[in-house]
Amino acid sequence: MAKEITSREQDYSQWYNDLVLKGGLADYSAVRGCMVIKPYGYALWENMRDQLDRMFKETGHVNAYFPLFIPKSFLSKEAAHVEGFAKECAVVTHYRLKNDPDGGGVIVDPEAKLEEELIVRPTSETIIWNTYKDWVQSYRDLPLLINQWANVVRWEMRTRLFLRTAEFLWQEGHTAHATRQEAVDETIQMLNVYATFVEEYMAVPVIKGVKTESERFAGAEDTYCIEALMQDGKALQAGTSHFLGQNFAKAFDVKFLSKENKLEHVWATSWGVSTRLVGALVMAHSDDDGLVMPPRIAPLQVVIVPIYKGDEEKGLIENRVAVLVRELKDLGIRVKFDNNENNRPGWKFAEHELKGVPVRVAIGARDLKNNVAEIARRDTKEKMTVPLEGLAFYIEALLEEIQLHLYNRAKIYRDAHITSADTWDEFRKVLEEKGGFISAHWDGTAETEASIKEATKATIRCIPLNNEPEQGVCVFSGKPSYQRVLFAQAY
Amino acid sequence: MAKEITSREQDYSQWYNDLVLKGGLADYSAVRGCMVIKPYGYALWENMRDQLDRMFKETGHVNAYFPLFIPKSFLSKEAAHVEGFAKECAVVTHYRLKNDPDGGGVIVDPEAKLEEELIVRPTSETIIWNTYKDWVQSYRDLPLLINQWANVVRWEMRTRLFLRTAEFLWQEGHTAHATRQEAVDETIQMLNVYATFVEEYMAVPVIKGVKTESERFAGAEDTYCIEALMQDGKALQAGTSHFLGQNFAKAFDVKFLSKENKLEHVWATSWGVSTRLVGALVMAHSDDDGLVMPPRIAPLQVVIVPIYKGDEEKGLIENRVAVLVRELKDLGIRVKFDNNENNRPGWKFAEHELKGVPVRVAIGARDLKNNVAEIARRDTKEKMTVPLEGLAFYIEALLEEIQLHLYNRAKIYRDAHITSADTWDEFRKVLEEKGGFISAHWDGTAETEASIKEATKATIRCIPLNNEPEQGVCVFSGKPSYQRVLFAQAY
After folding, report:
1. Total CB pairs under 8 A between chain A and B
2. Domain ends where: B258, B285, B312?
3. pTM for the full predicted model
4. B28 CB near a chain A CB, below 8 Å?
């Protein structure tokens, strides 16, 4: 009955798909490039969303909701933005279907053509700044600290479950400020919120940095990002926070009367993370037996499997487990008693392993007699026999230990995969043989960046925020450089 | 500074719009028929959503997410469904824009035409049942108890903020069952969940009933509903729960192997409520001074306004208020200390009244000396002087009292507006002079129903579930009838 998972070594990409599909996170849909997020995957996303939402609210943000559709002309208003986003959009051209007079089901009613086409939002800067125009008159109306949880659509040609889908779920923060400094501070604050969330809740270490001009968000003055490393040595951009300067305020004519009674353009930021984080989580921690969920956001933290023969043993175990379940719930732990009689314990063990439940408790009749239970950790596969007395507190501590262990394990791997390269030969060798981040000098030109990308598929993931200045020569062009940047192949 | 609200008597419809716009719930957008849900309105929706979500989970449901787009051909698969939904849809025909070679901004790329058009979901039965086909093989896979929180689009010609918008937010439950009885029970269970939510949290009394065939959901065997009454005497459908029989299982070929080893079609339900509930809430309780929020779902339950002269008074009041705020928060009460120095107390009073905050606390220097505060109830406008000692508990009890009072007030009004009519003259007279629900005999035919609608705009809102059988004659046709049904003009 156990579901076959392709090993990482055999086929990393198939391993990932197996985990997502067989682990019950998502499914393909009938619509090209769109996925179905299954209940287990959605529960994971809900935990991520709820924690992020708390962090946004703690930093003074409120939620709102803006239209799904954007008039086509809005996209053209910010020059860089249209270049970046107009290409890959779902376009609504009609608003009615009708019965096919020739009996072929329903057809698009040619008379119901929209005067101006509507774009399904690929991101909402344009529709939101068009709205902010009406909300901002004076410095008293600022800052606007607004976030939106929404679906967006980008017509990607090559899609992968969670990592790159035509439709995805995300949050997009859009803030408006009276000064440049306040907007820059906000951009950095939200980058830090993302880094804290990904590290402390997803147990995935990240590097905070700023993008080069070529990798910047279309319409931004600066794009800050957090970059994570996956087990195949590829990087994954886990979140971005953009300082938009006055670009959108100018494009949509959003001005305010300052304290000094002068009419000025508003300063902007935007920042987002998406269901892509689910893919990052899967690839950061899982193994060849299945998913591995970090306890703090695991949909299910503990599963309890009874092992018995006959109704008497069953009854005794159930009574004792009921106490344990209550104790765990009182501690705020998400626990399930898996007493489904259709499946045997061995099947359940494999299933919960596949789904990555952090802690498994097995209790048999003899355990009960000895007042113990068998505890299995998903992360290390370790098994321990633990007294039932005080077990809930033991599990509570164990969950924290697992959370830390996952983070440390990922961090050791990540740190071991940041390699300095000082020559082009070294650069290529590291990329081919080891992967991961390469810390190398770059001459600062978009041409060199493009050449390296063409030659190796590696891009500049970021210029780390904590970079030390260092004199050197560009690994590709040999021209002078004053700092190292991080290269990697990426998702 | 106080914002002008049109009175109900003067223009009910304008009163409603004033409340929504000036109360900060929503705004018009640049896209026809789509609204912007502003932070205060979204916070209200979040409270509704979170409570409903808890109730869904307590009754065994899980959340998932299905694609925004539905292939056009799917809509045609269920005969009644296509009739009901194909008419008013947003249709995606292209997936790319390009720069206008003539320099006119961006245009739709004619080469990026979809082979099959995609419909922006007006409701998700078709895409979901097409997915369930792959998820259900055996009775062991049933029931599927899945809910989705999502945006949907119906291209309505006449729109009103919250009540009828082209895009709206909602939840749609879609469940699959092994037996007819189980599906019927689920349909009724969810109707009861809705009724409990609307009555206990929104403080709006509802009538539970079943729709006539003409008013049924397209594709359902039975549509159950909850109907509420607004202050202008019009009814508003606040939620529906549909028993879909095997219609969608047959249309999408979803079969399962039963315990008896027979291949059978699955039984289905679907049920939904939407942001329309916000409109219902506004119209049920508000008055000519602004919104009136029921405490249990109010974004803000208590606002505290300091009244002082000079920094010394200010400091003293702030110190005491800090204690009160902590006490209130410890009780789980949503409170705001409005110490914004840009606005005067009188302006704040008007603003919080407009926004419908249930309890206002005002504290001045003399109050502080006397160890009291002035409490104002939004629902009755009553003001009381209350000791600071124990004030948090006093407010906690007061919030519950306001909640009950709002419900009782709305129920007294509603009950007084269910009028029996036994003749056609009576029927028309009640409708014209009094409004509300009319309890009248109906001959059970769609023709009569249509004639009454044409003559009066009144529709059969429902056949109440607690109906007593009663012999009579149809108020319109004079033909025999065995029960009364509820008519009303409706939103």
Report:
1. 193
2. B285
3. 0.96
4. no
Contact B103, A134 (CB under 8 A): no
Residue B8, domain member (yes or no): no
DSSP string, B197-234: HHHHTS----EEEE--GGGS-TT-SEEEEEEEE-TTS-
Number of domains composing chain B:
3
Rounded Cα–Cα distance for residues B122 and B168 (Å) = 10
Cis link prior to A306 (omega < 30° from 0)? Answer: no
Evaluate whether A288 touches A15 at the Cβ level (below 8 Å): yes
Q: Parallel, antiparallel, or unpaired: how do β-strands B418-420 and B437-441 relate?
A: parallel
Tens of pLDDT, residue by residue over B257-304, are 999 999 999 999 999 999 999 999 999 999 999 999 999 999 999 999
A contact residues 51-70, partner B, Cβ 8 Å cutoff: 62-70
Whether residue B228 contacts residue B206, with contact meaning beta carbons closer than 8 Å, is answered with: yes
Q: What is the ipTM of this complex?
A: 0.96
Positive or negative: CA dihedral A21, A25, A28, A30: positive
Q: What percent of chain A stands above pLDDT 90? A: 93
Residue type, A160: R
Residue A347: both structure tokens together: 């099947």
For residue B18, being part of any structural domain is answered with no
Pairwise CA distance, residues B485 & B209, whole Å: 9
Q: Alpha carbon of A429 to those of A230, A433, A435: distances in Å?
A: 19, 6, 9
DSSP B246: T
Distance, in Å, from the CA atom of B280 to the CA atom of B298, rounded to the nearest integer, reads 14
**Gap between the Cα atoms of B407 and B481, Å rounded:** 33
Contact (CB<8Å) B108/A86: no
Which CATH number is A350's domain given?
3.40.50.800
Instruction: Establish if A474 belongs to a structural domain.
Output: yes
How far does chain A reach from its first CA to its final CA, in angstroms? 33
Per-residue model confidence as pLDDT tens digits over B117-163 = 999 999 999 999 999 999 999 999 999 999 999 999 999 889 999 99
Confidence label for B83 from pLDDT (cuts 50, 70 and 90): confident
Q: Which of residues 111-170 of A touch B (CB under 8 A)?
A: 117-120, 127, 130-131, 134, 140, 146, 150-151, 153, 155, 167, 169
Flag whether residue A34 sits within 8 Å of chain B, measured between CB atoms.
yes
Q: Nearest CA of chain A to the CA of B91: how many Å?
A: 5
**pLDDT, tens digit (0-9, with 9 covering 90-100), for B179-197:** 999 999 999 999 999 999 9
Same domain, B131 and B195: yes
Eight-class DSSP state of A87: G
Residue A2 has pLDDT above 90, yes or no: no
Q: With a CB-CB cutoff of 8 Å, which residues 332-351 of chain A face chain B?
A: 342
Q: Give residues with Cβ within 8 angstroms of B50, minimum separation 6.
A: none
Same domain, A257 and A321: no
pLDDT in tens, B274-283: 999 999 999 9
Instruction: Write out chain A residues lying below 8 Å of B140, CB-based.
Output: 342
Task: State how far the Cα of B289 lies from the Cα of B274, in Å rounded to an integer.
Answer: 26
Range of the domain at B429: 418-488
